Amino acid sequence: DVQLVESGGGSVQAGGSLRLSCAASGNTRGAYCMGWFRQAPGKEREGVARIDTYGSTTYTDSMKGRFTISRDNSKNNLYLQMNSLKPEDTALYYCAASRTSVCYSWSQFNVWGQGTQVTVSS
After folding, report:
1. pLDDT under 70 in the chain at which residues?
2. What is the tens place of the pLDDT at every residue in 20-35?
3. Is the distance from CB of 37 to CB of 48 less than 8 angstroms?
């Protein structure tokens, strides 16, 4: 199976930037839809961005224009560049995967990393 490990989280002031990375290992052969999710304290987990095998991306509206998802298939890595961070972006950010070439739903993901904490102070 595939294992996912996130890195790059940390503490930053509002307006700052962070770049999250996700390294995939194990059975990475084949096509995968990859995504980033987040969960803030007391809130449900929500989709942030997803990218399919062909590079097509989808973002949750509140992240559009501030966050950019990308992938390097040669390195089995997924990235999330986060700019203009706000205190409400504070959350545990998860990398996720679905063994499908096309992304079609936030609920299709069935492989999860452990998460990396992002804290944005005002």
Report:
1. none
2. 999 999 888 888 999 9
3. yes
